[in-house]
TrEMBL record:
The keyword Transport does not apply. The keyword Ligase does not apply. Residues 1-25 form the signal peptide. Pfam families: MlaC. Keywords: Signal. This is Toluene tolerance protein.
Amino acid sequence: MTNRRHFLIGTGALGILLSGRPGFAADAATAFIDDLGGRAIAVLADKALAEAEREAKFREIFLAAFDVPAIGQFVLGRYRRSATPAQIEEFNRLYTEDVVRTYSRRLSQYAGEQLRTLGSQPQDDETVVRSQIVSPKGGQPVSVDWRLTGAAGGFKIVDVVIENLSMRSAQREDYGSVISGGGMDALLAGLRKKNQAG
């Protein structure tokens, strides 16, 4: 994976939710993304929260908005079929912990970027909300697509595509490389080590 892909997906996928000014919520899916941004920035702006409290609140927001089990199933891909039930259970737990901790902490790196939503459209069995990240320093806006499943009142995010780079596809590529080299146990060991390091 390139450094650019790591940067875009690693720091952008959630940090851009911290929008100081909402876009145009012309439909339920777009309104869902705008509302998510508003709730995230409210947590960040609460200076009375300790780091652990802030991370716990981000965790709650993240788990409510993202379909982590579905994303985890996708990133394992074909390797899921050969994994044991115990391995799948441990992966789901470790993956959720890793994703939530990683992105909840990166939310704190918000530096004034704004999310401008541009509306949504159906695509296969998902809804895609199109948006742009606008930096306070100027420059070219970054395009971001939020892929949702469900309907109004029950939307879940299953992917974030930044400048045509898919978060779930990038993770699938990375995890597949680890599994092909050392098996499912190698992936689990890596996730355990990462989570223990904090």
